[in-house]
Design a protein that fits this description.
The chain is α+β, with helices and mostly antiparallel strands. The protein is built from 23 helices and 17 strands. Helices cover 50% and strands 12% of the residues.
Length: 821
């Protein structure tokens, strides 16, 4: 009697994974047995697909067939030895190995002991129940094709690669099937013609393979495109007919390899098997275009600028500007009365083109400095020219202008430059230039302030006298360069005295007012005078402290504040902007007299403070505070007026951010130089902490200014001002302690600093406070007026914050002020 299988009741639940596992076992066994035979079959198919049979003679073909039969028999023998039929038991074992605890084996087992014990039987039943539940999670096991050990040379991979290449690249089978292998078969070897179109390199377009282009669509190619053609097969199999190269020699059309350029629109026709007809449109290269987009203007440092715009269909490759003397409009007087030398008539400059990116649309400006050229300040014509990759050129209509260049406002420097121009105009002017230079330098006292410039000028005069009859181009250029350096030395100078720098700045500004200089030049000279004035005031204070002067004021005892000086300078600039040159010249004279009569005093707690490195550091800290206050005022003014012109507001924001960065750099340098007082005192540490807070607030204000957020910038600047004041107070007390200890009386810092000037006034005639804190001649308000004034200010702020016509940024700022107070 047949024994009952214990797994019988469970086979139904695992029928699907058992079937697939058995299939995978068949795949493993067949793969391990048939891989040599299959590799041989794939290699033979790939060789036949690529036409290997056509390369063999009849004898070689029989030898190949015999080798193929032998290989097939060997493969069959290998398959017979390594093939075994998989069984259901093997499939069950493969499935059982995929789970932990081998549930199928557990279900196949029988209870060996304790069969009569009910408890033992119950435990065994529970165990089988758990195993029966676990077999529900069985999944088929994938086949394991481990052929590396049986195929150490990877022949199966070679066969698969060959079959894949044949599938992708081999030509289709010949119509006659296998019987065609062994014949020539040239008619089935591939395409009968090939053609490539390569546009000119300057177009940046890729080459085209004509066989891949869509049919019934005209092919648009740039003029000058290179076409390369290849014709295959016997002579006459493919006939070329084309009308795009303008060739007339019939022998060229019959060649199997041809190359020519596209010269005109027409047809390209390949006649024969696999032939095709192309309609080709030759697209001509458009000439470039260029035109000025503005007027010639003067840039800082004597450079001129001419904005322009240029276009081309593929890109500009070169640009030039030809600047020629407009001889008909030139003032033919004095040194210009002679005919000019040929080399003085024109200058050619290269236009700066973008190094990266497209050049088909260019908006730029011609920017250069021709201050040293004879064409400076002369009537000229500026012609802009551009070229493209096809060699085509175009020019803009000439622009007539007086060529802007650096101007010299010192009379002596201007005279030297004029003689230099006359000599460059014509070398025959050398004797006249020497004569005039002798005349203007005959009595240098009071006229030539720079002795070194005077000596160099006399050397130039001597060289002109020695070579006036035979002055060549090289000698003229050397003398012209020397005269240029002399003029710069006279105009800009190398003065170390603050008073001389101020006097030179006043002279240049005065001369510019009389000559009607441009607003840009006036702004530069005004800034130069402001800087020189600040240096002069600092020099006055330092000289007074060193001498210990007791005199403090002008003869009338009246002082002038720094704010009043600033108002005078602002008024002077306003008059120049309004064109009121006469009033500006009069105010300039009054300012000159005022500065000449100014004297310095050192009063109690004056802005210069005590001597020594710590005192110098405190003075610099006071300058930083005043600069921050001025910057905050300008930012608030821009916030009120910035809504009118967004472009100007953006530019002003960048200027304010730059000023804020400079102030922050000054503060950082001041912190790093180690000269601040109170290194070991609590006041000194507190002052340094306040400086750190000020630097962070300046950083936030700078970032807000760069982003155009003026309200946030004002908040940061207010914090910086408050931190700077606190730092000055703390460091001033620390410095007072140090000075008092050095003098044996640590509590009398203010008195010791005030002994030099009993009235306690600074160089500008102001009443000074203690510890670098400037005061005024009297208290602003006293008693109950303080509270009344505070209420009035708060009421005014409330009124302005409620006015809807004001800009939103201003109203937000006023609301933040109300929140603070």
């Amino acid at each position: 009697m047949k024994e009952k299988d214990p797994l019988g009741p469970f086979l139904t639940s695992i029928a699907a994974p058992l079937k697939w596992t058995l299939v995978f076992l068949w795949i493993e066994r067949l793969g391990a047995a048939l891989w040599p035979l299959a590799s041989l079959a794939l290699m033979v198919m790939a060789a036949l697909a690529f036409g290997a049979a056509r390369l063999l003679t009849l004898d070689a073909l029989w030898i190949a067939l015999l080798a193929l039969v032998a290989g097939a028999l060997a493969g069959a023998f290998y398959a017979r030895r390594h093939m075994s039929r998989p069984t259901q038991a093997e499939a069950l074992a493969r499935l059982d190995a995929s789970l932990r605890d081998a549930p199928l084996a557990a279900l196949h087992d029988a209870q060996a002991i304790g069969t009569d014990d009910p408890d033992s039987a119950a435990v065994w039943a529970a165990h089988r129940a758990r195993m029966a539940q676990r077999i529900g999670t069985l999944r088929p096991r994938a086949p394991k094709l481990r052929l590396a050990s049986a195929d150490p040379y990877a022949l199966r991979h070679i066969a698969l690669t060959a079959a894949a290449l044949a599938l992708l690249f081999a030509p289709p089978l010949p119509p006659m099937g296998l019987g065609g292998w062994g014949q020539s078969g040239d008619e089935t070897a591939g395409p009968m013609w090939e053609a490539w179109a390569t546009p000119p390199a300057y177009t940046g377009k890729a080459a085209l393979y004509l066989a891949d282009q869509p049919e019934d669509t005209p092919l648009v190619l740039p003029m000058g495109t290179r076409l390369d053609l290849r014709l295959y097969g016997a002579a006459g199999d493919v006939i070329l007919d084309e009308t795009i190269s303008a060739r007339t020699d019939a022998t060229q059309l019959a060649q199997s390899q041809q190359s020519f350029d596209l010269m005109q629109s027409g047809r390209l026709n390949f006649q024969g098997r696999g032939g095709r007809d192309f309609d080709i449109i030759a697209q001509p290269d458009a000439p470039p275009r260029i035109s000025p987009s503005g007027e010639v203007v003067l840039r800082p440092e004597g450079r001129f600028a001419l904005p322009y715009q240029a276009q081309d269909d593929y890109g500009i490759t070169k640009g030039q500007a030809k600047i020629a003397l407009d001889l008909a409009k030139a003032p033919r007087l004095f040194g210009l009365a002679l005919p000019p030398d040929d080399e003085a008539l024109s200058v050619t400059l290269d236009l700066a083109l973008p190094r990266r990116g497209p050049r088909d649309q260019i908006k730029a400006e011609l920017l250069d400095d021709l201050s040293k050229s004879v064409l400076a300040h002369m009537p000229v014509t500026i012609t802009l020219l551009v070229s493209d990759g096809a060699g085509q050129s175009a020019s803009a209509p000439p622009v007539s202008a007086i060529l802007p260049a650096k101007r010299f406002f010192d009379p002596l420097a201007a005279a030297v430059i004029e003689m230099r121009r006359d000599m460059l105009w014509a070398r025959a002017n050398a004797p006249r230039a020497a004569q005039i230079l002798k005349a203007i330098s005959h009595a240098p006292t009071g006229f030539v302030r720079n002795e070194r410039a005077y000596l160099r000028l006399r050397a130039v005069i001597a060289a002109l006298d020695a070579n006036s009859g035979a002055l060549d181009v090289a000698g003229r250029d050397a003398l012209a360069e020397e005269m240029w350096q002399i003029a710069l030395l006279i105009e800009e100078g190398d003065l170390t005295s603050a008073q001389e720098r101020l006097r030179r700045a006043q002279d240049r500004l005065d001369e510019a007012i009389r000559k009607g200089a441009s607003p840009q030049e006036i702004d530069e000279l005004m800034q130069e005078m402001r800087d020189a004035l600040q240096s002069y005031l600092r020099q006055l204070a330092e000289d007074s402290r060193e001498r210990g002067d007791q005199t403090s004021q002008n003869q009338d005892g009246a002082g002038i504040s720094q704010d009043q000086l600033q108002q005078l300078l602002d008024r002077l600039q306003q008059l120049m902007e309004e064109g009121k040159t006469a009033e500006a010249a009069e105010l300039m004279q009054r300012l000159r007299e005022l500065m000449e009569n100014m004297q310095v005093t050192q009063g109690q707690g004056s802005g210069d403070g005590p001597a020594g490195p710590s005192g110098q550091a405190m003075r610099q800290l006071g300058d930083t505070l005043r600069g921050q206050q001025s910057l905050s005022d300008d930012a608030f003014r821009d916030m009120q007026q910035g809504q009118a012109d967004q472009d100007d507001s953006s530019q002003n924001g960048g200027d304010l951010a730059q000023r804020q960065q400079e102030l922050r750099d000054q503060l950082q340098q001041l912190q790093e130089n180690g000269q601040l007082p109170g290194n070991d005192s609590a006041q000194g540490q507190s002052g340094r902490q306040a400086l750190d807070d000020a630097a962070r607030a300046m950083k936030r204000a700078e970032e807000a200014l760069r982003e155009g957020d003026l309200p946030s910038a004002l908040d940061g600047q207010a914090e910086a001002l408050q931190a700077l004041r606190e730092s000055i107070n703390d460091l001033g007390e620390a410095l007072a302690q140090e000075q008092g200890e050095a003098q044996g009386n640590p509590s009398e810092f203010g008195q010791s600093m005030g002994e030099e000037d009993p009235r306690g006034r600074d160089p500008l005639g102001r009443q000074a406070g203690n510890a670098l804190r400037h005061g005024s001649d009297e208290n602003l308000l006293g008693g109950e007026d303080v509270y009344r004034r505070a209420e009035e200010l708060l009421e005014e702020i409330r009124r302005r914050s409620g006015e809807g016509a004001r800009p939103e940024e201003e109203r937000n700022y006023l609301k933040r002020l109300l929140d603070l107070f």
